[in-house]
Amino acid sequence: MFSNLRLSICILCMAHCCLVFAQQEAWVYLTDKQNVAQSISNPITILTQKAIERKNAQGIAIDSRDVPVNENYITQLKAQTGIQVMAKSKWFNAVHVRGSEVDINALLALSFVDSIDFANDGLNSRPALVQDNFSIENTLVDFNYGDAQNQVEMLNLDCLHESDYTGEGITIAVLDSGFTNVNTMSSFQRLRDNNDLLDGYDFVDRNADVYNFTGSNHGTKVLSTMAGYIENQYVGTAPDASYYLFRTEDVSSENPVEESYWVEAAERADSLGVDIINTSLGYTIYDNSAYDYSISEMDGNTTYITRGANIAGEKGIIVVVSAGNSGASTWQMVEAPADAPNVLTVGAVDSSGVYASFSSQGSAIQPTQKPDVVAKGSATAVIDENDTIVTNNGTSFSSPIIAGSIACLLQAQPFSTVDEISQAVRMSSSQYEFPDYFLGYGIPDFCNALTLLSVPEIDSQDIRIHPNPVSSTLHLNVSEGSPILVSVTDTLGKRVVEDETLYNNQLDVSQLKSGLYFLNIHSSESHKIIKFIKN
């Protein structure tokens, strides 16, 4: 009797498994949008004033990607047999759907469906890796009831705080898995008193009460490293910034729809005029191994979330991403979207600035240096949902420490672009001259970064460059007679022309690809960074 019951249970479980995995995840790309020209000419109908001002300040055009998905198309998709609409993206003009392979493929018969991209890319032969996004981070480390002094001073951020740059006027969106008790904790009372705890949304459960879900305290801890404040005990890196809280991670399962939730949240952040996104999430494998990514797909432009993160950067948002906690595992490499060229990827070090072995590493697969920089992620002081200061390990905490620090830097230099801010952070770092796949450019010095952004403009009579844009040879007019030392870096901090002493004041840049670059000029009297465009 018992054996038959057990057999019946096994059969039911197998049937359930087959049913679950028969459900496919896919992105349905649509052909067009409504009223594109009209929306772009009247952008206040699709964006907030803050978003419009941020884009204008950075010279970023409002384009068709800012126009919402056609809701009539979504209504029609929902009406199709066996189809669940899980998320939507205006940037990709796409909808994430769930259903059987047959039912999803049947959507191609709809006139407004352009193409379909299944999450299952046929990589079933790759062995599944066991991974818990938060297992390392939930391990408490013995800590003597300390505060955030080490993780702040390591970055020389106290230099900015002393000048009253604490993130005021800067808006940060936190995309995470749960924000338990943030709305009631005394550690965030300062935010509430200053009306800096802004709107939130739960993209997983589809409701506006982002505090209703209490199944994860991860976002609470992440937020505390930036916004936490307990007088004489704890100060986050940006205690006076404003925050939107978005839940995009479903801790009960791993499914590609979480990538779609993330992109949808990033789009909302963009439309709200958010300056910085912090995300301490990463994706490599899923419950259904058919959806797993390969290491070769961590190439900065393949996964859905990575492509969305790249667009967020193009839209003028500084996107700060944790590198991941796979450094000591079989996977080892940074996880999507940390592989994106347009994000600042943050690894982890301990209190002495030594590489934390769990911190995911970069590789030649990424088109740009990863990680970009590092901050304290080993024995990081965080505040849990019980208003208690504890210590946790994980790049999930080194990332927001940097994001909050950037908010202070952006407050001090509000007219700097995403590229300029990110480049200054990289250039200020401890091993900028010799980056590696463990620490990237190293530990940033935010006082130094502010200095780099604040370098007085040298009068045009002293140093001028032409032509700009340039095709092959860049000419420098220098009034001083002494030789000058120059180097060139791209917008992602990679040095593309090493230090070179110029005697004829001409620099060959013909080997560079088209794009924006920074010319770093050192003369006997001054230092200057000049932007130029290579045709």
What do you see in this structure?
This protein is of the alpha/beta class and 535 residues long. The protein folds into 3 domains: 97 residues, no CATH class; 305 residues, 3-Layer(aba) Sandwich (Rossmann fold), CATH 3.40.50.200; 72 residues, Immunoglobulin-like, CATH 2.60.40.3080. 25% of the residues lie in helices and 22% in strands. It is built from 14 helices and 22 strands. The strands form 6 sheets. Strands 6-9-5-10-11-12-13 form a 7-stranded parallel β-sheet, with helices on both faces. Strands 2-3-1-4 form a 4-stranded antiparallel β-sheet. The chain has a 4-stranded antiparallel β-sheet with strand order 19-18-21-22, with no helix packed on it. A hairpin with a 3-residue loop joins β7 and β8.
